Input
Amino acid sequence: MDPIDQRPQAHRHVPAAGVVQALPKSLSKPYSVSALCRYTRLAMNYQLYYWPTIQGRGEFVRLALEEAGARYRDVARETGKGAGVAALMRFLDGRHIERPPFAPPFLKAGRLVIGQTANILQFLGARHGLAPKDEGGRLWTHELQLTMADFLGEIHDTHHPVAVDLYYEDQKKEARRRAADFLKHRAPKFLGYFEEILAKNARGERYLVGAKLTYADLSMFQVMAGLNYAFPRAMTKAARKYRRLVALHGRVQERPHIAAYLASPRRIPFNDEGIFRHYAELDAV
Ligand SMILES: N[C@@H](CCC(=O)N[C@@H](CS)C(=O)NCC(=O)O)C(=O)O
Output
């Protein structure tokens, strides 16, 4: 939580000493509460924990952090003491932590340790203006994110329909059946749903929720990017049916912070270890 938010209401206009010292010269006095809150949010150092060699579910969190211009460490991708996969495993092992996450991604923000992608995004969305402020809007954004999580599980299961712990090579036959059904029934059902949400948005079809970008749009971008990678033939063939989703993908990709991120080494390429994998034999149309 921001130092400012932790202080009693009556004293909120008095910035904490450490915060004042760190304020940039560009902020003019007297400091407004909203400018201070915004500054302390941006200055907060987050620590993201996720498997270092794949985009996976961690990517949904990265996109929100990058769009927000937040400072964060991608701890498991770093080397040295207190970093790397060993640091991540210490949280999962849970011996020294009261609320251990079940699996990565998880985010450390001050003393908070937050697990579950949708939960992390809900937290970041509220802090960085990536979600509506009203209750109905917040819940709706969260609902869309949870539906994307369901979709993501099914995308994963196209190449691992039998068991997570078996290699793809050990379940190729089942994967073919699963992927064929996915492309025929499940992907159209999910994509059709999100396309309809864009069409129905009373504030226009640019975003999933209201008239402004939310973390759900960033996640939808990632789902589309991943599907394009995994199933290029099927997605090319279906593109006409999802013109709003295709447009959303293009729009998010061009946002300055996202474009800079995608061009940076922080965006590692899709590969055949992640959730979105390309196996030509599964991309049968
Ligand atoms: N529902 C969780 C799922 C987390 C999850 O499955 N993480 C994967 C990596 S993407 C993992 O490491 N799982 C370990 C396991 O399930 O044993 C979320 O959305 O964050």
